[in-house]
Design brief:
It holds the Pfam family Rhomboid. This protein has 215 residues and is mainly alpha-helical. The chain contains ten helices and four strands; from the N terminus they run H-H-E-H-H-H-E-H-E-E-H-H-H-H. The radius of gyration is 17 Å and the shape is globular.
């Protein structure tokens, strides 16, 4: 890894240490997980702290492996400070969108760095839209195709509610990665304008559906 990537290692280490603390201390886990009723009552720290907790080692491993693979690209383009802005901005926006969608579900809870990690992934896609990703780790597809498809899948999953995955947090994280990257690297609008427009379509669709009461 490059010289600036120590910040990525630090974030991975924080996720691992805090998650393992949560695995072994149920009171700690409950105190800092995302919980709608507690956040609405003023316990705002959960918006941040919940992203450093995970359900189990598999959940933690998948998130940290994805972060490891894509973080270096983001650091290379926007620097360590820009990477931190993408990571934490996506984290917060993901959880705020989740709070918006579940505001009337007082018992709704969630944990995980997925929103932040998806934000980093989308930043990497915007910065390098010609890179190839492995669908199911086998089928190579252009990164921007994966990005668009994943957001539309997230919208479907948010409507269907057939699992316990925080698709709304993932979507909010992707939005964070999208908008923060454009602010940090406006040259992307000139060099990859078509990809910027295509990646914006599912975001627009989400808000239109919400406005129409379809979500």
């Amino acid at each position: 890894m490059g010289g600036l990537d120590f910040i990525v290692i630090a974030i991975i280490a924080a996720n691992v240490l805090i998650s393992f603390k949560g695995f072994n201390d149920y009171d700690f886990f409950n105190r800092y997980k995302f919980e709608v009723s507690s956040i609405k009552a003023g316990d705002k720290i959960r918006i941040l702290s919940s992203a450093f907790l995970h359900v189990d080692t598999t959940h933690l491993f998948v998130n940290m492996l994805t972060l490891y693979f894509f973080a270096s690209s983001v650091v290379a383009f926007v620097g360590a400070g820009g990477f931190l802005l993408v990571y934490f901005g996506s984290l917060v926006l993901g959880n705020l969108l989740s709070l918006q969608f579940h505001k009337d579900e007082s018992n709704y809870t969630a944990v995980g760095a997925s929103g932040a990690v998806v934000g980093v992934l989308y930043a990497a896609i915007l910065l390098q839209p010609d890179m190839m990703l492995g669908l199911f780790f086998i089928i190579p597809i252009p990164a921007y195709v994966f990005g668009i498809g994943y957001l539309f899948y997230s919208i479907w999953a948010m409507k269907a509610r057939r699992d316990n995955v925080g698709h709304d947090a993932h979507f909010g994280g992707a939005m964070g990665g999208y908008f923060i990257t454009l602010l940090l690297s406006p040259w992307v609008l000139q060099e990859h304008l078509l990809m910027v427009i295509l990646l914006a379509i599912p975001i627009i669709v989400l808000f239109v559906l919400q406005k129409l009461g379809k979500l």
